[in-house]
Amino acid sequence: MKQILHIFAKDVRRFWPEILISLAITAAFAWLYPTQWLTMHLSASPPRITNQLIHLLLLLVPVSWWLLISRLIHAERLVGDTQFWLTRPYEWKKLLTAKLLFLVLFLYLPIFIAQCLLLAVAGFHPLSYLPGLLYNLLIITGIIVLPLVALATVTSSFARMTLTVLGILCGIAGILVLSSYVNMEHFTVPNEPNYALALVLSVCGAAVVVQYAFRKVWLARLLLIAPPVLFICISEFIPSSSLSLIDRAYPRPASTADAPIQLSYGPDAFHQPRAYQARRANEVEIDIPLKLSGIGEGFAVVSDGVRVSIESPSGFRWISPWVPVYMTDYLPEDKDSYVKFTMPRDIYDKLKSTPLSVRLTIALTQVQATNITNISLPSREFSVPDFGNCSPSQWMPSLTVIICHSPVRQPPLASVRVSWSDSSCSASQTEHGTGVPGVGWAGKLDPDAVPFGIDPVWEFGVFPSNSNLYEHREHPRYLCPGSSVIFTRYKLARRAQISLAIQDFHLPAQQ
Amino acid sequence: MNPTIRTESLSKRFGRTIAVDGLDLTVPEGAIYALVGPNGAGKTTIIKLLMNIFCPSAGRADVLGIDSRQLAGKAFNRIGYVSENQEMLEGMTVGAMLDYFHPFYPTWDRALEEQLIRQFDLPLKRKLKHLSRGMKMKAAFVSSLAYRPSLIVLDEPFTGLDPLVRDELIEGLIERAPETTIFLSSHDLAEIESFSSHVGYLEQGRLLFSEEMSVLSDRFREVIVTLSSPSPLPANLPASWLQPQTVDCVVRFVHSSYKDQATAQEVSAIFPSARDVSFDPMTLRSIFLAIAKSNRGATFSTSHQTAAREKIA
Prior knowledge:
The complex is a heterodimer.
Chain A: H1 2-14, H2 16-36, H3 48-75, H4 92-121, H5 130-153, H6 158-183, H7 195-214, H8 217-237, H9 243-249, E1 262-265, E2 274-277, E3 283-293, E4 299-311, E5 317-319, E6 323-324, E7 329-330, E8 336-344, H10 345-351, E9 356-376, E10 382-384, E11 388-396, E12 399-407, E13 414-420, E14 436-442, E15 457-462, E16 484-505
Antiparallel strand pairs in A: 1-3, 2-3, 3-8, 4-5, 4-6, 4-7, 4-9, 9-16, 10-11, 11-12, 12-15, 13-14, 13-16
Helix pairs in contact in A: 1-4, 2-3, 2-4, 3-4, 3-5, 5-7, 7-8
Chain B: E1 5-14, E2 17-27, E3 32-36, H1 43-50, E4 58-63, E5 66-67, E6 79-83, H2 94-101, H3 110-120, H4 133-145, E7 151-155, H5 163-176, E8 181-186, H6 189-193, E9 198-203, E10 206-212, H7 213-219, E11 221-227, E12 241-247, E13 250-255, H8 260-270, E14 274-281, H9 284-296, H10 302-312
Parallel strand pairs in B: 3-8, 3-9, 6-7, 7-8
Antiparallel strand pairs in B: 1-2, 1-4, 4-5, 9-10, 11-13, 11-14, 12-13
């Protein structure tokens, strides 16, 4: 213990300027960040310079850690053969412990205090969210601190470490570009264990221990490089490996009647198949209209992913990979929807004039309402149990939305039903009761235990439907104080995979 | 008595380069052992192997009875190491550095530390990065002598120092000699000749010989034979005669196995017409020059190296 404190004290004396810089940046972040939460309130937007400063601080906090970690580890660097400490009675476990103690006191503790302060400012008691805060620190460890420590142990100076970090960032960018080219978008199975975090923690931890215990630089470097490369190759470039996972997570129902929702191909006067240019030049996005039915009262259905198989009379077949579906949550009263997917332009051109057999396989999650909170919309902040603190906010001059903060992570999946008023809120109160219904969704069914971030407060807006924001701007609708707002939280009922066959389907002409 | 350092077939490769090749070395307790050899001979590599800074490719080394690969932590309480290119705590003052190292060593002697500071005239309040090379070496010496180590390992400690600083350091070192074993490397023979008790000669990673300084001095003689008339060198001279050359009536060579009467008889037998024969003691520098030159005269194939080693030993 004596040696640990002795090395620690030496590092504190030596690196007090770096410590002060890091503390000052963290303090500035904790002080300024809450003003960011007001950016969605039109009337209370902070000055642009403050916003830019906050974004800069979000970058500077990890950069200051980078500097601190490099200086700390390189003070007794592990690469090279001329370091003074190699022939002194340093014990590696004590040296490593001294470095960890330094990080705990000057990196983890300040950010932990800053996060507690931010929670308190947002109206949440920090001690109630201690496990989440600690898990957040674990994620920060896995994504920032431990990789930086590991890189510092296999490099000899800040300059070399910086070059290595830049090289790794370029490598990751290259893999992402290649991955997007090879595999488009990924559909991940819910509740899939966080293998990446576990991998990072274990390989970086192993490399650090190997370096401190044995100073085997090339072994440590290999440890840092090989497993992640292998993992990325497996997860990014061999998508079929996850097919069995998807089949397990989304079993097929025993019968059509047993499905959580009934789907049929449903073109009508208002809903027609559409085709338009996708984000990538060589792809076309297709929308297929669907009719919905069979969602039980008290239930909702979330569409998670889709896979499309198209076959021409000549026997040519195209099967898409599983791709995620966004913003498709269905309530019992919903009757129409679209399923969207992209296909390569050359295949689209080849098949567009031919009657096709299309098979849509959709991964669905059925959720069941649990808690319902009915609130008469106040004009100030209000608390929704098991959800967060919300307040009506002037999003645009003609539109009020509900802005919420939830502590540490996203709230559970919830629908928010509101009642729009066609007249302004200054009109008589009697008009408000008979409003236009609107539904918005917020939260996540399988929220991450804690999302990665330095900010511990999750801020989000609820944008209910039928606001006339986009389609009938000349007739804006208003969310007035006193109107009813119903928060319905959902829990998982089951997951299922259902298929829909469409015969004689013609790909629509591109718009 | 157990040797302080013992190596057995110690080897170190860096890729295809053999830096140390099958080194068998013994440093007895209490010795002042000088490992000498030209630049690039492998002296620093051997020291780094002994200090567990490098890991051997083959063979083993024991230092103070500990396998060098296990040398870590508390084992360094008994070892003082100073190297010409070792990094120091540059941002600290001399006093702060000594205060920092002090708690690591249970045997740190404050009185000895103060004595050495006075002896070396060290400025305690100056930062190490502002010190001259000589002053830095003095500070390194104090930080490695103040805990009375059982073994002091010095890697080219006097390189680039002015004679005054060098003498001060040697003096400080000699004062510690009775209570410790000193192992140092150098390519400057003159500086180690005055105080070394043992010497080993290293060339191209191989130890050509290793013995007590007195034995070495006794063994080598510069032999000058004056003949009655000029004559060419006879063929098949003994292998222990290094660099034989003749000018007019004078034959000159270095005898590497001098044994008083026996050598005189050997010379007389080869040069029966010798008018005068002198056997002059040699300085260490002359001995090593003779060895180095006789080796460089040969092509360094393995067989030649083996022959050279046999000839010298």
